[in-house]
Specification:
CATH topology of the largest domain: Heat Shock Protein 90
Radius of gyration: 36 Å
Shape: rod-shaped
Distance between the termini: 34 Å
CATH architecture of the largest domain: 2-Layer Sandwich
Number of helices: 12
CATH class of the largest domain: Alpha Beta
Mean pLDDT: 80
Oligomer: single chain
Number of strands: 7
Amino acid sequence: MDTVAQKNPTGRVYNLITRRVVYHTLFWLILLLLLTLIEGTEQGFLFTLSNELINIFFYGLIVYFNLFYLIPNYLTKKRFLTYCGLLILATIILTPLKVLVFYFKFSGYSQAQADLLNNMNWYFLVTFFIAGSSTIFKIIADWARHLREKQELQTQTMQSELRFLKSQINPHFLFNTLNNLYALTLKKSDKAPEIVIKLSEMMRYMLYECNEKQVLLSKEVHYIRNYLDLERLRQGKTVEINFVVEGDLADQKIAPLMFIPFLENSFKHGLSNQISTGFVNIKLTVEEHNIHFFIENSKPDTPPKQDSRRSGGIGLVNIHRRLNLLYPNQYELEIEDSPRSYAVNLKLDLAS
């Protein structure tokens, strides 16, 4: 980290000015300059500058006493009345001390000394205002830091959860696909080499391209086609599998492996060994800022004892969580479960 900062001048400057000592010093120097310009230099620049240095010294005393002692020990512990009382007391003590310093400094200016005594209340109010301003600044700074830390934590949590969900999807699919390949090798099918090639393409996609937050929709569709080709080889002619794509896929992007859990569930639960024939119909409609994914599969006459789609299986549980993380308030998911078929309608809004 230090090496990167050293090679990046902008990074070095940012790290420097964000250190507390540096930006506090810059603040007091700027305030000193402003007060000097406002006061004017009729009595000489050094005389005015020395006056404002005294002001800055006492302002700094009340501010840092407030920041490092009063706020941590009283305000943050919700002892508000005690905090206010001590802040007023500190102002009452420091204001006469500052006036006394100026009184001796203006020993040769009787009118200035008289003005000091006459404006004691004004000096008190200004000092108290400076102290109160530091309290407001501290509250705003703590709130901003808390908000930033909360946002960073949410981002880290979301990224960790997405990585976890994707790590569940990939092994789950690989397990199913290897089972398919095993079934064909047992039959000594001549189509086994074709499966190996398609599986190789799919594994390359999962290993190297699915690590991105979004992938080209065209690549996702190619992945689905390979998946369906493997299923056609495994299921044989007794099962009708249809996949229709409408619209322009060019330049459209989507989160990777978003549709795979639906496909897995359709073949696992719909086209089970309990029925001799069946179907899976898939339609993907692509518009400028919207994607509509529809999949419907036949169901066996006698449903399996436990249907993970309704009992919280990995696939659909993950897809709900991924949708909420990646497309919050940007999707509609409808499931129609009838006696003879099971259908899923997913609409994604990509405009946001």
